[in-house]
Each structure stands twice: as structure tokens, then as C-alpha cells.
Design a protein that fits this description.
The chain is α/β, with parallel strands linked by helices. The chain contains nine helices and ten strands.
Amino acid sequence: MHHILIPTDFSGTAQSAVDYALSYFKGEPCVFHFLNTYTPDFVHSRVMALAHGGNQEEDAMQVISEKGLKHLVENLKAQYPEAGHEFHTVSSFNLLTEEVKEQLSLYPIDMIFSGTTGASGIKEVFLGSNTVRILRAASACPVLVIPNETRFKKGVKIGLVTDFGTPYSATQIEAILEFQTRLNASLEVMHIGGPEGLTGFQELHKHQLFLELERGNPQMKWRTPMASKSDVIEDYLEEASIGLLIMIRNDHHLVDEWLREPVVKKVAFHTDIPMLVLPPVQP
């Protein structure tokens, strides 16, 4: 059975991720791990340790957390009575990043579903601050970012953005093909630049990728570089009507460039479609 981790703060944004996950795995029993952390993310670990002796405020937060998780599971059991899913809950007085790492060490988590608010004007938080933290904490686990109010949809086009910088693992290939099958989707591979600019190693990796993805009938798309790679990708997603963006984390990859930038920034990556971030090849 698949083990799926879904952090939640009981917001509509988090619920979008829950709904998408349940629709994605429709007809396939899974173990869903719902995580709620109720420690303010700005609390220093030393301060948190000193405060962990217990107080009324902490107790009240724990009650709210546990009630919220119980209510979530009761609603899902009523909504999906025949699904055969298992629902596990974790209410934790801990930092979100630390608890995500803890859950990944305790259970064979196959994927994390994370809701995000996406673009929200001048005060935009890049990808949603919690999503950024999760991507940082779960570098070895696939993370599917679900924008608020996004609904599961089949028959879409998947855009795989890659720099052909490294070889692709069997696990990465199977994840891409699994999403293509479940979404009944077409597949496009997009590279920022032209074919004439590829090095010998990039050509080799491109050949390998298309050979491994052959049964998915991928199409190749080239995009002219601009000042911002984010702008290129955003334009591509809109113009090509992409329904799911897939990116693979590798050394010096764009995803990690984003994560090293300030969380709140004037020019950020805006997405209103799901984005799957796959982990790099494990050594």
C-alpha cells in the first residue's frame, strides 16, 4: 500500500491537497498520514524545549489540533466509506520541518501532498511558506504541490521541465509514467534553450530520457532563454496549457535555486497548477 503524508492546518488550502490525494488514489487503498504541528514556526528549538513542560496555551493548542484531525478523518470516512483507506493522524508540538523529517524516518512515505496558496499579489509568499519548508525538509521524497482550489483532473498535459544535466533513475521515470497513466495525460519535455546548445552529456541524457519514456510518447519543446528562468516556465505553462508541472531536483537545479532565494520576493514563481518535485538520483 502507498503511504502518503499530508501536512494540514485545516485550511481550505490544505483541504485542496487532501481532496486531490483522495481523488488521485481513487480505487486504490492507501495509508494516509495527516500531520498537524502546532508550534509557531518562529519558536527557537531551545525555547520550545524549555516550554515543553506544559502550559495552558500549549494544552489548548493540542486540543484544537487533535479535534481538527479527528474531524478531518471522520469526514473522510463518511465521504469515502468503501475506499479501504487507512487514516493515521499525528498531532505534534514541533517544528513542521522537524516533524516531516520524523515521519519520513518512521514510515515508508511514498509521497507528500502539500497545499499552497500560490500567487497572492504584492505580498506573495513564494510557493507558500510551509511548502518551501517541506521541500527543504523532504529532499529525498517526492512532493506534490497543490494550489488552493485545484481539483483533480484527467486528460491534461504534463510538462516535464529539465536541463538534461544528469542521468535519470528508474524511480524518476516510473513516477513520471505513473502520473501520466493516472491522469490519462499527454507528456511534453521542455528545455530552456535550443538543441544546438546541448553538450555531449546533455545529448546523452536526453536520449536516455526519451528512450525510457518511449511508451508515454513524449514530445520535445524548446524555449528561448530569458532573464528569469521562472518567467520562461510560467509563460510555457500558460501558452502550452500545462495541467501538471514536473521538475526533478538535482545539484544546482532550479528548484533548489528557488529555495535558496528569500521566501518573500518581488519576483517569484507563480503557479496555479499542481507541481510535482521529484528527488534526485540517490547515491
